[in-house]
Amino acid sequence: MKVEDIKKIAVMGAGDMGHGIAEVALLAGYKVALRDIEQRFVDRGLSRIKESLDKLAGKQKITEENKKAMVANITTFVDIAESVKDADFVIEAVPEIMDLKKQVFQALDAAAPKHAILASNTSNMSITEIAAATKRPEQVVGMHFFNPAVLMKLVEVTKGGKTTEETMQVAYNLALKMNKVPVRVEKDSIGFVYNRINAPAQILLSLMVEKGVAAPMEIDAKMRKIGMPMGPYELMDYVGLDVAYHGALYFADKLSRDYAPPSWLKAKIDAGTLGKKTGKGIFDWSKGRPEIDLSKAKEDFDPTALIALQVNEATKLLEAGVVKSPDEIDKAMVNGGGSVIGPFQLAKGIGYDKLAKICEDLAQEFDVKVFEPTETLKKGNI
């Protein structure tokens, strides 16, 4: 199968990611089937797509004719078998619960045409494990878009244990046709590239609050003062504290107990204060974006600590052959977030020896093994 053979794309899930991915497929000229478990979810997803297309037409990014054609190109479903019966490529965007994903892939495998490729938009979970629920694991691939899917450029294309090179190439080329920046993840690894590299910094940010080293406002104010458009805690709220919590549980189970979510985060989950989506999380979102008081910046916090942990984790991916080169990692980090340059480019300016020393100090101060510098970082031969 080649990318030119794809005429219709089915998207499972019409939520934040699903409806965004469906819109990206429409903008690339594909026929789209959008499916969710209840009609109200499908209707909400479709109305959000129409609103977004209206905005694009208003900004003259697309014509009215384009818009009408795209709306005509989307059909909605609740029945999973109906939604994929004539699909060439399927993208799953259901909640990050492994058992749920397996159930969906089992149903997709039974109903989708034999030639169809089945992709998962999972941000952390094993493609190999998901593929094992099907009889076509060689046609299962990771295709992780970033939120909001219409705007963000990065797509991580991940190879499962049995994914063929042909499947990888079709998914990679499809991302290009969708005007995205694909990065190949050559080995199925927890968190892939972007989330994996940011995960140790998440441990540090969690522990700083847990141990009373700093308050979220103090760190976010410091990061905003040095030019970041959004601080790390506000970003956690924006994405959803439930996403951070479930991601931490999965990392703790699969990688290291160091990733276990802190008690303050669990308390917020238990209270249902999940961030922007509920109006309150770490910050108050009830009146729109929270105000960060820059006068409260913790001036003795060195943001280089976050860079050091990123670079250190990135070297682990290189050592394990998850990604082929430092340039690919930098490409992923720039296109997956708001960074102007990637961690390895930053490391060249700071010095690998300095970053290794920071990691060593953090590992001792917080008693976290994940922070310990790799041999690659200590030698600096990258």
Task: Label this structure with key terms.
single chain; alpha/beta; N-(1-d-carboxylethyl)-l-norvaline Dehydrogenase, domain 2; 50% helix
Could you walk me through the main structural features you see in this protein, from its secondary elements to its overall organization?
- The chain is of the alpha/beta class.
- It has 3 domains: about 5-185, 3-Layer(aba) Sandwich (Rossmann fold); about 215-295, N-(1-d-carboxylethyl)-l-norvaline Dehydrogenase, domain 2 (Orthogonal Bundle), CATH 1.10.1040; about 305-380, Orthogonal Bundle (N-(1-d-carboxylethyl)-l-norvaline Dehydrogenase, domain 2).
- The protein contains 17 helices and 8 strands.
- An 8-stranded mixed β-sheet has the order 3-2-1-4-5-6-7-8, with helices on both faces.
- Helix 13 (about 305-320) packs across helix 15 (about 345-350).
- The longest helix has 20 residues, at about 40-60.
- The model has no long low-confidence stretch (mean pLDDT about 95).
Tertiary shape: globular
Weakly predicted, low-confidence segments: none
Cα(first) to Cα(last) distance is 37 Å
Residue-averaged pLDDT: 96
Number of strands: 8
Order of helices and strands: EHEHHEHEHEHEEHEHHHHHHHHHH
CATH architectural category of the largest domain: 3-Layer(aba) Sandwich
- CATH classification class of the largest domain: Alpha Beta
| Structural class category | alpha/beta
What is the number of domains? 3
Say which CATH homologous superfamily of the largest domain is assigned.
NAD(P)-binding Rossmann-like Domain
- Please indicate the percent range of residues in DSSP E strands (runs of 2 or more): 5-15%
As a percent range, the share of helical residues equals: 40-55%
What would the CATH topology of the largest domain be?
Rossmann fold
Q: What is the makeup of the main sheet? A: 8 strands, mixed
- How many distinct helices? 17
Strand order of the largest sheet: 3-2-1-4-5-6-7-8
Q: What is Rg?
A: 21 Å
